[in-house]
TrEMBL record:
Ranges where the record places region Disordered: 135-158
InterPro entries cross-referenced by the UniProt entry: Acyl_CoA_acyltransferase, Bact_Acetyltransf, GNAT_dom
Source organism, top-level taxon: Bacteria
Identification of the protein by name: GNAT family N-acetyltransferase
Record-level Gene Ontology MF annotations: acyltransferase activity, transferring groups other than amino-acyl groups
Biological classification of the source: Bacteria, Bacillati, Actinomycetota, Actinomycetes, Micrococcales
Length: 369
């Protein structure tokens, strides 16, 4: 039986450096897996994105592990058959390690994943982490009565327990805690639909709310307000049984996030709703657009603070965002988003705007011993 070695990726000064072989190999595996799962590479990791993760560690420690044959003294990018991408927050959730494990379709069921996971857990322990969160990607959601259908403990969302990612997680001691719906919106959206949704939401919100939009950099005056929204994202968004704690942001972290997005080769756009009587931000939505893939848009965080819910602010900021995208990025063809299956309000907004269910992500948790 073939054996595998797991190597920690160096942190090269540039992607042209010979030490960047692991980054390029990991990216190639990510592209192959996404083609196998979804038929496209829209959300696959680029080498540039992975490199930025390893070099910008002010708030998160990131470790990239790659697997290759054990008999190779000097592996190259072409020899990489799998990866484990770990990130560990430095100022909050200090018990947690997040692991994304990816194995090339041609090398599954050969011990690659087990070798990567064993090393990833060792890295997590070395950083004082006792809980690991991982995910499994599934092309679709099985019917409730389908053989092997596994429902999340929340009662919302199912995955096929027989599919490789789920079977691997269960076999290695992980417990399913949550299901996230993966949805895609084909662009452009009918302008009449967007105008109607925007008008209805604005009427419901009333005169107390005012929209702002920023691209690539937030004005200084709104940094602390935006930090509050990102902090609340860690507590207000559904997290099921995942043992997550508050993740505190401040103005410096907002600026660091902007710099990281730019370094990854992405632009971003934020639409936020100000509650004018208090001068604070009540809701926001954010998207990222890779410069090298103009057809692709990633929906990042969307949040309405609990105290401002019931006024259709979620629909207001998202409809406004899509109208702005149509004007500023006419070449965009698809928006990708993930939402907890129990987040019925946000899912209803997405469905109304035309997002179509494309897959399900299982969110798994394991306590290290």
């Amino acid at each position: 039986m073939r054996t595998w070695s797991v190597t920690r990726s160096p942190v090269p000064p540039s992607l042209e450096d010979p030490a960047a072989w692991a980054l390029h190999g990991a990216s190639a595996v990510s592209f192959a897996v996404d083609h196998d799962t979804y038929g496209n590479d829209d959300v696959a990791y680029t080498a540039q994105y992975l490199h930025v993760g390893l070099t910008r560690t002010e708030y998160t420690t990131r470790v990239l592990l790659v697997a290759h044959r054990s008999d190779l003294a000097s592996p190259t990018a072409q020899d990489v058959v799998g990866l484990a991408n770990l990130h560990m927050q430095r100022a909050s959730n200090e018990r947690m390690a997040y692991v994304e494990l990816v194995v090339h379709p041609e090398h599954r069921r050969q011990g690659v994943g087990a070798a990567l996971l064993a090393e990833a857990e060792q890295v997590a322990r070395a950083h004082g982490r006792s809980v690991v969160i991982a995910s499994s990607d599934h092309r679709g959601e099985p019917a409730a009565d389908a053989p092997g259908a596994l429902e999340a403990p929340t009662g919302s969302g199912r995955i096929d327990s027989a599919e490789p990612g789920a079977a691997f997680a269960h076999r290695h001691g992980f417990v399913l805690e949550q299901a996230e719906r993966y949805s895609v919106l084909d662009l452009p959206v009918d302008p009449d639909l967007l105008d109607r949704m925007h008008a209805e939401a604005a009427d419901r919100a009333g005169a107390d709310y005012r929209l702002h939009a920023w691209r690539d950099s937030l004005p200084e005056e709104w940094l602390e307000h935006f930090a509050v929204l990102e902090t609340r994202m860690s507590t207000d968004a559904p997290s099921a049984g995942l043992e997550l704690e508050e993740d505190v942001w401040d103005a410096a972290r907002v600026r660091a996030a902007e710099e990281r997005i730019a370094a990854a080769g992405h632009a971003f756009l934020v639409v936020a709703a100000e509650h004018e009587p208090t001068g604070t931000l009540a809701a926001f939505t954010m998207v990222e657009m890779p410069h090298d893939r103009p057809a692709v848009v990633f929906q990042e965080d969307t949040l309405v603070l609990r105290e401002h819910r019931g006024r259709r602010l979620g629909m207001l900021v998202k409809a406004d965002m899509l109208r702005r995208l149509a004007a500023s990025h006419p070449g965009a063809e698809r928006v990708h988003t993930w939402n907890a299956e129990e987040n019925s309000y946000m899912l209803a907004i997405n469905v109304a705007l035309g997002f179509r269910p494309t897959g399900v992500s299982g969110e798994w948790q394991k306590h290290l011993t």
